[in-house]
Amino acid sequence: MKNFISGDYYATLRVEKSAHQDEIKRAYRKAVLNCHPDHHPDDKEAEEEFKRVSEAWGILGDAERRRHYDLVSELIGPGKHADDAVNGFIEAFGKIINEVRSDFEKNESKRKQTATKKTPKRKRKVAKKIDDEFMILKQGGMEFRVRRNHAS
Question: How far apart, in whole angstroms, are the C-alpha atoms of residue 53 and residue 70?
């Protein structure tokens, strides 16, 4: 399969882009009669026209290939390389990625500035059970071993 669109296949078959499949088939048959090598044995121009008509029919005669042709020709236009569409997509995608990265970096620097301004959390008391009789009480940087109060 070629990686470019060699021309406007609708113009080659002389049909509108909105033409139904039957119209395209009739236009192909009519065009082939006018340029078939059997009818014009020594005419190189007719031979080239026959090749263009056959190529157009190969694409527009198949519904799936026609759909792909229409999508690509909308993106890049007829007669241009498909590589142009890929490069355009990569360029546009790269711009989007750079914008997202820039926004992320701005937000990250704001977050870091905000994080340094926060006041430190208060140190709280932490009690940890050792066994039924004792527990450790931590406050600040100190630990206390405390006897548990048992209800009798």
Answer: 17
